[in-house]
Amino acid sequence: MSTPAQTQDRTAGATTRELPAGPKNYRAWVARSAKQPMVLETLDPGPLGAEEVEVAVEHCGLCHSDLSVLNNEWGISQYPAVLGHEVIGRVTAVGPNTKARKVGQRIGIGWFSGSDMHCRQCMAGSHHLCSQAQATIIGHRGGFASHARAHWVWTIPLPEKLNPADAGPLLCGGITVFNPLMMHARPTDRVGVIGIGGIGHMAVKFAAAYGCDVTAFTSSESKFDEARGFGANHVVSSRDPAGIKKLAGGFDLLISTVNVPLDWDALIGTLAPNGRLHVVGAVLEPIPVPAFSLIGQQRSVSGSPTGSPVAIETMLDFAARHAIAPQTEHFPMSKINEAFARLESGKARYRIVLDADF
Ligand SMILES: [Zn+2]
Ligand SMILES: [Zn+2]
Asked: How many domains does the chain contain in total?
């Protein structure tokens, strides 16, 4: 968890001052150690950084990464941890050097809540690739709390047309699948989405709205009709090797959202010449890629994390224009441990949002 001193470091030499308004203490759901239920605690937030924004949390999406960090699956968790990185809330205070954010404004915070703002990547507008980027839930307090903070650049204004209760999952899951489309797809492309879950169903909606011919790959036949409802033109069982083989040479872009090993070579075989398998699901087992599967057809395998602040803003604008929202289940934040259990069960359809009830 960041100390006030670390927070000051992050705002690059700027001075700090006492919270101008708002509560002295925050309430937060705290994970004291790995794999333990979260408990409600009162925290002293310390002084607000000069370039930081404070928000009163209204809703916060529950992302699979929250579960991975709770369970220290990636070995990078820091306890005590306040999870939650799909934050929607209203600004309650702004540091004196903050630009373009006002008290009362509704904003979102995603996977990152800060970056150094002066490295080559930040200066190029790729803040999400900054080596000093601050993950919202690692060494920093996330959104399963009464309040959250972020550098003002990483607080993204929410378009009026988006329903704030369901917009949270766009801030992490949504941008994670929207960014590959922006980088690698054209509206005329044939796009496959592997895994129709929390982020895969948003990928189908975005790709369909973008104009692509969309194929959903899912291991669950119970999701076939829903995938079509999200805009998929075709649905294929990811457990049907013969069905996958029939798609050989068909896709310009495959976006993999799953975190389990698949028959990767068969999937690469479904790529058209110049096609790309793009990985956003954090599968821990290495993906074997035979050289000849890439060379002959000039194919690629790539990956990406979330997206820059401007990419997130663009995604929210696109979502508002096309009325794209995740399909959600809501829990009061006081039922956070039940919500995590529901996510872990794999039964959530499709994304869980916690509503603040402090
Ligand atoms: Zn996430
Ligand atoms: Zn940077």
From this structure: 2
Top-ranked range on mean pLDDT: pick from 13-17, 28-32, 282-286: 28-32
| Mean pLDDT within 70-78 | 96
Same domain, 153 and 99: yes
246 C-alpha to ligand 1 centroid (Å): 33
Q: Do residues 218 and 147 both lie within one domain? A: no
In the reported structure, the alpha carbon of residue 122 is separated from the centroid of ligand 2 by a whole-number distance in angstroms of: 4
pLDDT exceeds 60 at position 9: no
Q: 172, 306 in Cβ contact below 8 A?
A: yes
By the CB criterion, residues less than 5 angstroms from ion ligand 1 are: 63, 65, 172
Would you give the DSSP letter of residue 158? P
Asked whether residue 122 falls in the same domain as residue 18, the answer is yes
Domain extent, residue 223, equals: 173-303
Ligand 2 centre to CA of 121 (Å) is 5
What local confidence, expressed as pLDDT, does residue 96 receive?
97
- Calculate how far, in angstroms, residue 292's C-alpha sits from the geometric centre of ligand 1: 34
Same structural domain, 79 and 144: yes
Average per-residue pLDDT in the chain?
93
Q: How far is the CA of 178 from the centre of ligand 1 (A)?
A: 13
Which amino acid appears at position 298 of this protein? Q
Please enumerate in sequence order all residues whose Cβ is within 8 A of that of 354, keeping only pairs 6 or more positions apart, or say none.
Answer: 59, 60, 61, 62, 84, 144, 330, 331, 332, 333, 335, 336, 339
Distance 111 CA to ligand 1 centre (A): 6
CA of 188 to the centre of ligand 2 (A): 34
Residues 243, 280: one domain? yes
Q: 154 and 84, same structural domain?
A: yes
Q: pLDDT tens for residues 21-64?
A: 455 689 999 999 999 999 999 999 999 999 999 999 999 999 99
What is the predicted pLDDT for the residue at 18? 43
User: What CATH number corresponds to the domain at position 217?
Assistant: 3.40.50.720
CATH number at residue 327: 3.90.180.10
Count Cβ atoms within 10 A of the Cβ of residue 188 and give its class: 0-12 exposed, 13-18 middle, 19 or more buried: exposed
The one-letter amino acid code at 327 reads Q
The average pLDDT across 134-138 equals: 98
Q: Both 279 and 195 in a single domain? A: yes
